[in-house]
User: Fold these one by one.
Assistant:
Number 1:
Amino acid sequence: ERLSNDFQFIDVGRMDPPKKDIITRTNEFVEIYQPFSERQVASQAHRCLDCGNPYCETGCPVHNYIPNWLKLVTDGNVMAAAELCHQTNTLPEVCGRVCPQDRLCEGACTLNDGFGAVTIGNAEKYITDTAFALGWRPDLSHVEKTDKRVAVIGAGPAGLGCADVLVRNGVQPVVFDKYPEIGGLITFGIPEFKLEKSVMQKRREIFTDMGIEFCLNTEVGKDISFEQLLNDYDAVFMGMGTYNYMKGGFPGEDLPGVHDALPFLVANVNRNMGWEKNPDEFISVEGKRVVVLGGGDTAMDCNRSSIRLGAKSVTCAYRRDEENMPGSRREVANAKEEGVRFLFNRQPVEITGDGKVSGVKVVTTQLGEPDENGRRRPQVVPGSEEIIPADIVLVAFGFRPSPAEWFGEHDIDVADWGGVVAPEQQQFKFQTSNAKVFAGGDMVRGSDLVVTAIWEGRQAAEGILDYLDV
Ligand code: FAD
Ligand code: SF4
């Protein structure tokens, strides 16, 4: 009888799925949220007001038909909901888990004004997980095949988004990746406590059944030349990400015990998954005092991985205040619950140590006036130097583009900051300066989000379809 109530959003408050107990959370690399039950998800989905002007769809970078699939879930029609989810999103089960919903769909929800936004992300996850478990699969039986073939470089969300739209339009995508599994940073960056690896493994099965071909363990430029892809395929899409690590530019960054964030996370995934080739790449933090520098998603993942790997203490130093952290608020809250200590308004100026790291020298900052982008820049408080003791320092300052050496010889322009130039607003969306080559995701927009990479990959596929005139 509750589901017939139009004022459900007042009677039933927003509820997130319960989290696992803290012992599991601080020791195991497993997702921390329990799944919603059918009853819970229907009751939460029914809180949607169907407000007529769905701001949530605007807030969602792939513009999901959110109120429509919430209605289907309320009615218990999970198969139709899954079908609808897949019209706009290539990886709904992934986005439901890792999107910073508080900044996107849920941040824009009309109810996010005192009542508590609808739990959109968890509904999206529920729909896809449940439909897959019940045997639902994308139906491509109506697709008429063309004779066109497109090479996709990178099996991250951008490449997968592109391949998904291509195959649904009868164009054969062949996806090349240097890693042994698909997913890009979804698989090799984001740890299991946010998204278990089985999720992408299931997706690989589904993509393969849809007809997407994968050539894994194949690095373009080394195992196969870019030239060959240009010759063998009707078009090429590049979704290769950004893989140059930003440095702080202060003394001590090369001391033993100081590590870049991503290799630390990747080595841990490789060990957990049995994919490890060189045990020396694994960075043990057991019993050690870990200091993580940075405030984004990568920093949060380092914090929470270190807790699970048995660090003696984990301290995260960030140069702005909590309000201005770029990472998802949900993940900051989870990190705090798991025992991470945050030091806000601390800017590192030196990593100290004699032969190996012993601490991080920081100064306290306060926020100055807003800059031209409206962001308030930190300023140093005089005389505020202090040293945070550390045995291991993980540097998570973000990523810069990593242009491939072949770009120049194939007339692929890059911007001053290193990103590939592939504008959305032009005749063929996301086409580069080489007419046969398209690009999207982090390598075009700078490191961002899974969902924005999916959007660009999907849009680029539309550009490719127009270019191939199919
Ligand atoms: P990538 O995911 O980087 O994929 C690029 C792929 O291209 C890789 O698989 C790479 O192996 C392959 N490749 C590159 N060059 C070649 C070559 N020459 N030959 C063959 N293959 C090649 N986003 C969120 O939305 N939520 C989160 O919680 C979140 N957490 C994150 C945590 C971490 C630690 C990191 C690092 C990022 C996180 N992000 C998160 C960001 C998100 O993962 C990225 O924005 C997104 O994966 C970018 O997608 P992409 O397809 O552009 O590139
Ligand atoms: Fe929200 Fe991300 Fe799903 Fe869009 S894709 S509805 S932003 S969780």
Number 2:
Amino acid sequence: LRLSNASLDRLPGQIRRPAYNRSDIRPGIVHLGIGAFHRAHQAVVIDDLLAQGASGWGIVGASLRSPDTRDALIPQDCLYTLAVRSGAGTEHRIIGSVLETIVAPANPAVLIARMADPATRIVSLTVTEKGYCHTPQAGELDEQHPDIVHDLQHPDAPRSAPGFIVAALARRQAAGTVPFTILSCDNLAANGHTAKRIVTQFAALRSRELARWIEDEVAFPSTMVDRIVPETTEADRASVAAALGMTDAWPVVTEPFTQWIVEDRFPAGRPDFVAAGVQLVSDVTPFEHMKLRLLNASHSALAYLGYLAGFETIAAAMTDARFAAYARQVMEDAAPTLEMPAGTDLAAYSVSLLQRFSNPALHHRTWQIAMDGSQKLPQRLLAAMQDRLRMGLPIDTHALAVAGWMRYVTARDEAGGAIDVRDPIAAKLKAIADSAGPVADRLAPALLEVSSIFGTLGGDTRMRSAVTQALAKLYEVGARQAVQEFRPV
Ligand code: NAD
């Protein structure tokens, strides 16, 4: 038996299911990048809103890469299980807000038509940092990016997120349809502004008039999203099947905590987000910096150093008191770089993060978080380092995490085994590492010269010396010992 509309009433009684008639729901949102995170975060908010009667806000989910999500969800009428795990056990709930899935490479015209449909009022995104086809340090469109080059040649059969957005907006402009609002939910600095810059720059390569229309008419509110959603494993599928008494090929597993803060700029309309616990604000920047520099920064630090030290998951690394103390130090060092609204308690926020990282029921792999470091370092670690240098403060805590990333991208672990480094510029990083050799004095300066990641910070002598010293320590005693011995200046 498999999860589907027809089998919903055969689920055990305690399992929550859509509290609305799915056939009454019409789509209002197209989501690009229907991965695990979207299905455990925004789609749950929409599921809550549909239960409150917001029937025009169903989701059409698109994959810009793999057909795996569609292939798993279509036989299930796009239903899937949300498994919320804590020390106290697991709560299962069936989510019904995704109405349809589209695989963009197979059907680019169908996706563009859906996005251009006047019923679509929001296009949201979780296409990962690299999906923006930008230079992560400067936040500008990378005009040499193979997908961007392709999309300029094939504007009606694009591959990239900016390519699809601009194709659909061009269609709407020509038809005199109001533009949709673009809602980035990726972990980028100033995600709305960044999305706007990239989309407008791409549009300008097609038509200056179109770019001007986007500049003037399209809203790109920034958002802060927070919920830890590890990749689903076979073991997760088995435990969900046992709880459901039927198969679900595509469940998502997450923690109890969830947060979504959104700038309230939706000229084409929006659902009543507040009714589902979303915070609407006029400027999300301080919250976004707080999350990137405390949560994501310490997550990345634990990922690189933890992976090198042999910890498979974040929770495992957190069982080592020195790793936990080091993660707390990353947060403490980032705190002075933040300008928070009055009443924000950063100490309490940090304590809650450490508790969430320690959730033993979540198997969030260090390897997964370590992915795409070239796209993540600037907003998570480097921006805070830059601010600390400006303030005359030491940067050795963050430097150890950056050194961990450098050691990691050599693609050789401490025992000489291969590391499966996933990153859009993995080959380039490996080539730099190979030619420098395992020598901190050569490797650190060579990697700091990658300006798409480090920008001008790479040339700062204090940066060079702190990172080189930390990398030397990693080569000398290994990650576990380096974290054991680490004491902030
Ligand atoms: P996932 O691997 O489950 O899904 C990623 C999605 O992005 C897939 O639909 C994939 O097709 C698409 N994608 C990948 N590369 C792309 C590219 N180059 N162009 C366009 N689309 C591309 O990952 P996820 O857990 O859903 O996370 C996605 C993003 O959500 C993260 O990168 C992050 O920005 C944000 N996020 C995730 C979490 C989390 O805990 N998982 C928390 C906060 C924010």
Number 3:
Amino acid sequence: TREAKLDLVKKHIKPYPDFPSKGILFRDICPILKDPAALTAVIDLFEEHVRQMQPQVELIVGLDARGFLFGPLLAQRLGVGFVLIRKKGKLPGPTVSVAYTLEYGQAEVEMQEDAVAPGQKVLLIDDLLATGGTLWAACELLKKNKAEVLGCMVVIELKDLHGSERVESTVFSLVQY
Ligand code: PRP
Ligand code: ADE
């Protein structure tokens, strides 16, 4: 069942106080990847959500780096493509970039100019929503490339940081803290 799958996912998220800096409670998803049943549960729950979306998702766009762990698995299940949004300086050819702030620092994300077609219906995926800076920047990038963002999906949402208010698009999360 859905509840059993969610329980399994929750059991495989490990909290680490004061990482990477004092005052941050880091939610580690590595145990999920180490357990095939937990990883399957994540992808099952994501798939269930995406399949009932209207209009239909045409492309999954994942965020550097932990969005890459879940995005391609989901894209393959759905039979759609996967595109990477990377930290600045990693992608070849003409790119578009957007700068942003996050829970513990500053960064800039980048995407290849030809990665999405104008009007293409995309879904953003990452492991975790904190302040929303990353997903906000990703939405800006996709806007610049004229894609249509249908929504965002994360394993974990840190509710206290109100990240979903910063992201213009709807955010679907499996586990909330
Ligand atoms: C983490 C996490 C999200 C982002 C969320 O990534 O994986 O991408 O922070 O924070 P925000 O909502 O405040 O933007 P991080 O930048 O640490 O990089 P990594 O995935 O490469 O470890
Ligand atoms: N990315 C941003 N904030 C995070 C947190 N608290 N745990 C794990 N990843 C994060």
Number 4:
Amino acid sequence: MSDVTKKKQVDRNRSIDPAVLEVLSKELPCDTAYDRYVAQQPQCKFGDTGVCCRICIQGPCRITNKAPKGICGATAYTIVARNLVRTALGGASAHSDHSKHILLTLKALLDGHAPDYSIKSPEKLRAIAERFEIATEGREDMEILADVVKLGMDDYMRMSGDSVKWIEKTVTPGRVEKFKSHNIMPTSVFETIASATAQTHMGMDADPVNLIFKALEAGLADYTGMHIGTDMSDVLFGVPTPVFTEANMGVINPNKVNIAVHGHNPLLSEMIVQAARDMEADAKAAGAEGIQLMGICCTGNEVLMRQGVPPVTNFLSQELPMMTGAIDAMVVDVQCIMPGVQAVAECYNTRVITTSENAKIPGAHHIDFSEEKALEQAKHAISIAIDGYKEREGVECCIPSDKNKVVAGFSVEALYDLFSAINADAPIKVITDALKSGELRGVALFAGCNNLKGVHDENHMTIAKELAKNDVLLLATGCAAGTYAKMGLLTPAAIDTYAGDGLKAFIKRLNEANAGKLEGDLPLIFHLGSCVDNTRATNLATAIANDFGVDVPKIPFVASAPEAMSEKAVAIGLWNVAMGLPVHVGVVPPVTGSDLVNGIALQVAHDVYGGYFMWETDGTKAAAKMLEALDYRSWKLKVHAE
Ligand code: XCC
Ligand code: SF4
């Protein structure tokens, strides 16, 4: 082995996923994110700390001791705060654009232009309608849907006056009051995106506190888009219930047509699942044993939650399944799709198929996806994959054998269903009683991405194991859940290995009360879904707070993005802080260039909203801080004293 190759392998040793390490240990014909991360070192300190301003084209202005102000006179705190608002806006825009497409598809369904879609969960539709006091008695589903869609669209488009209903009706009364009294309640999603973008234009707001509050408003606009996305996806594709499957690269089957779906929006991936079922015979006619679908990132989480499609990998390693030589097509929709996938695809004869007019990749196939022809287009994508399979014949594949069992599909409804077996009148009491008795020390949500500033998947694993040992009930979404799926933490077996006695007893009781109802036992960590489904966790936190008769800042509930990467993760972090939760972030975000802004994130937010950020890159220390935050809240609430 040459020195260069050896060095590459050391540099690439930035994951704890054995399948990833196996692929990266080979001499590869093209580079991956792991190599490009190394090539990017050292990264710019100005950008890293948030003190680079490019908001006007006199810039970039960079703050140093010698030049403490930008050309316009903006100081570090203005620049850092303004950049944070813009980052949050990127996230809010991404989530709300995703959900806008779902709303528009429902509108098309109402207008008779989306023939392949239908209302899969009339129960959820009615539950949403009741939440907003929309009449349901004696009305047809489509009539109710029309009202719900209109309300969703109003929450996107209102220009003044009223505030977002999707927030008002899904959080505690205390939060509604707080958001209104502190002027961070959005009027609508688009209003916040427009006004916040304006506020951060050159020569506009220079006040860091005002800007940070606007960032929180952007966070709440993000929450709105996400919540609408989850609700409407449940209506359109069904409310998730427990599914039993497998994860990691061992799910790739060399004898089948292997198709990865990647991105976020279930509008397409759900159709791909349906089309794949319809086209098994075509795959067999081409000499394959069938079609193997698998998911990457959050569209993968969507079809895992509702269809049991196995996740093959998460964000950071998205290029690697192709490097097994066995992926015939990767169908992508929106967000978190590295442009680098195309170069890898060209080395390994994979067809990358883009499907969104706002997410194209040069060199890839493109299907201009529309709800009018959804199933037909999904079938076209599958036929491209089958063509790929035919060409693959005889090519040697190198597939890591690693895979783990997965139990996922835990919508709030599914959890309540399980809890009802213990307490039918008040399912949430199953959690609050366990918190009161001290059986559970708290609840933690793991969200977010992967980030090469740390070791891939390491923080997710370290923190979860530590909290499990300390009897914290664990929830997960997005690529955090992807890690746990790949690494075997979404299994009953993981309870024996990692859970403390209290958590063990809690899950055991649930298993016993629900014996025979599910295909198998419950897992150590409850997978709530994709990134947009983080609002499911908020629904739980809200229910816990309401049951305790307090507001969210008082309950022992923490959130963590151990490997945050995207603008969406920043937006999610911000609204979780606004909701009143301690939010750990395992990567130091670009705000440390201003002590003032950093201080607001870490402390002032706490004084005003009850939530706050904790930056901690070390997983073990992060777990300790999260436990401390939980214990402090339990002590204040005196839950254990009852
Ligand atoms: Fe993207 Fe959602 Fe992050 Fe994964 S977790 S890297 S945003 S796919 Ni939401
Ligand atoms: Fe420089 Fe001010 Fe322009 Fe930013 S807005 S680039 S600090 S002159």
